[in-house]
Amino acid sequence: MSKAAAKPEAEGEAPPKKGGKKLLIIILVVVLLLVVAGGAVVVLLLKKNQGEDGATDAHAKEETHLKVDLSHPPTFVTLEPFTVNLAPAEGDHFLQVVMVLKVVDPEVAEQMKGYMPEIRHEVNLVLSSKLPSEISTVDGREELAKEAMERINYVLGFEKPSAEQMKRNPGPWGPVISVLFNSFIVQ
User: Fold this and answer.
1) Exposure of 150 in the CB half-sphere (CA atoms within 13 A)
2) Does residue 154 register a pLDDT over 90?
3) How far is 65 from 50, CA to CA, in rounded Å?
4) In CATH, what class is 75-186?
5) What phi and psi, each to the nearest 5 degrees, are found at residue 95?
6) 143 - beta bridge partners?
7) In whole angstroms, what separates CA 145 from the centre of its chain?
8) Which range has the top average pLDDT, 14-23, 44-53, 128-137?
9) How far is it, in rounded angstroms, from Cα 10 to Cα 17?
10) At 101, which helix (H) or strand (E)?
11) What CA–CA distance (Å, rounded) separates 168 from 136?
């Protein structure tokens, strides 16, 4: 007898195709690439935001902390010693003080020589207007130094800015940055 004819497969079933596995692999690779690319974009955006925040923080730190450049030391002008009678409300007292002015640069120090008589006059007025009790504390001496600095800067042509201007720009507002006391004797 003749061989039986091979049964035809059911009409709804198709023989497995070899191309189907390739298509599945391609789809998986594309999805994997999209996930990796999305992750890379997220990482780059996060790093960019951190970089901007870091730059802002570094800039803020730079503004709040003075940089000390040891290759360019500050310029100091030592004034001749002052001996003044203090305000007489608490008896007879006198003050002997040696002041040093910290200025913005050596050129200013040279230019100050021409103003020295007027600077000494203003400092004498400030010193002699104080009571011994006003300058016996650290706060009192700091206030005295601040007042002397303001008067000296005024002599040099720089008026103290308003409180609002000082808030916007808290840095030095005149050529004399600070007044230092090398010696301070009250008797």
Assistant:
1) 12
2) yes
3) 22
4) alpha beta
5) -125, 130
6) none
7) 24
8) 128-137
9) 16
10) strand 94-103
11) 33
Residue the block writes with tokens 């601040």? 146
- Written as one letter, the residue type at 148 is A
SS3 state of residue 90 = coil
Q: Which H/E stretch holds residue 79?
A: none
In this structure, the number of other CB atoms found within 10 A of the CB of residue 144 comes to 23
Domains of the chain, residue spans: 19-65, 75-186
* CB of 149 closer than 8 Å to CB of 179: yes
* Residue 155 to residue 65: CA distance in whole angstroms: 30
What is the predicted pLDDT for the residue at 131? 93
Q: Residue 90: how many CA atoms within 13 Å on its side-chain side?
A: 15
Helix ranges (H only) for the chain are 19-64, 106-112, 116-128, 138-155, 163-168
The pLDDT of 27-49, averaged and rounded, is: 74
pLDDT in tens, 54-101: 554 544 444 445 456 678 788 999 999 999 999 887 788 999 999 999
pLDDT beyond 50 at 102: yes
Alpha carbons 107 and 111: distance in angstroms, whole number = 6
CA distance linking residue 131 with residue 133, whole number of Å:
5
- Residue 10 has what pLDDT? 53
State the distance between the two ends of the chain, measured CA to CA, in whole angstroms. 143
Amino acid at 98: V
